[in-house]
Amino acid sequence: MTPFLILLTFGSVWPFSPDVDLTARAALLMDAATGKVLYQRDPDLRLPPASTTKVVTAILALESGRKLGESLTVSKVAARVPASKLYLRPGQTITIGHLLYGILLSSANDASIVLAEGIAGSVENFSERMTKKAQGIGAVNSHFTNPHGLTAPDHYSTARDLAILFRYAMRNPTFSEIVQTKISSVNSTSTIRKRTVARRISVRNHNRLLWNFDGAIGGKTGYTHAAQKCFVGAVARNGVTLIIAILGARDQWGDTKQLLEYGFDNYQTLKAATQPAGQTATSEQASIRPERIATILAAPQDDTRSKSSDGYLLQVGAFRERERADFLLKQFSAKGLEAFVEKISLIEGQTTYRVRIGPYAELLEAQEVAKEILDQSGLRALILPAPPPRETPDNPS
User: Fold this and answer.
1) Is 107 a catalytic residue?
2) 54 tagged catalytic
């Protein structure tokens, strides 16, 4: 058995493949800077969005022209809505600013109703404005019938629409500040026997990424039995901000974290092979599989896009175990290729070991080596721009 054939006994060199491993019914990963879609699964499938609906509720409240310090009165309808909630009582007053913290951190349904009734006069009027606003932003496959996201007929959105809406919302500094707040408190007031009585309510952000995922800058969770687990949010690392939207997931945080890591790990390649979020993907574009990336990059390109000042690397494997990476390294080194192992620290103390080959000065050379590896071993190498060399201090200490 040749060394290359031995490699195949290790199975897939990709520890995560979104097309295979995601539990979500629909998912989308977007480059926040450009709006390009880096990965998508059924992005335009209309599904119940649960409390991710509250992103639109917040947008409408923030753009209503009302001041954040203005107080709104809690109605009986608001007080009776099912949880999650702040357990506001009829007749209490609470400011718009505190209501926004309530809906975006604690996902408070009663606070959503108070905002809707206080701003538009009724839930129905507010919901119509929500749909109109969302479609005006570009979320053309969304329709809302309430401000909280509890399951209702004709209340739906899509992964693509949620990403578009969240990207828009994050441009508002108040929204951005609120969604990255971990813990806060809100105050409601009521009048008892001509005395004003204040009630302080602690609110904690449901977005777990803020506590345990590097670069998390905000998001909105959602869950109902019909919708299952949903999330839309953003993470920023090394000058790149990714927006993720998932709907109908069984493993909310597993899907979210793995797809984000996948996006950051393969950002340059995915960016080169994708399209703006507003365009409708063809079936060929709808799902970029890891094993197809080398084929995409191997297509003819014009000279303006085929050069990198630092050359190109081939990534042929990524493993959690160092021994497997070292074994693969030896096989390629024995073939005379300049292979090396790069250790990468992941979330929660985890580590991955990437087996890479190169660098190659020209893209054509990298493509030829990738083809040779594919022909001899069946492994599809990922072609990546080589990172610039690190500067060495003149007087290292």
Assistant:
1) yes
2) yes
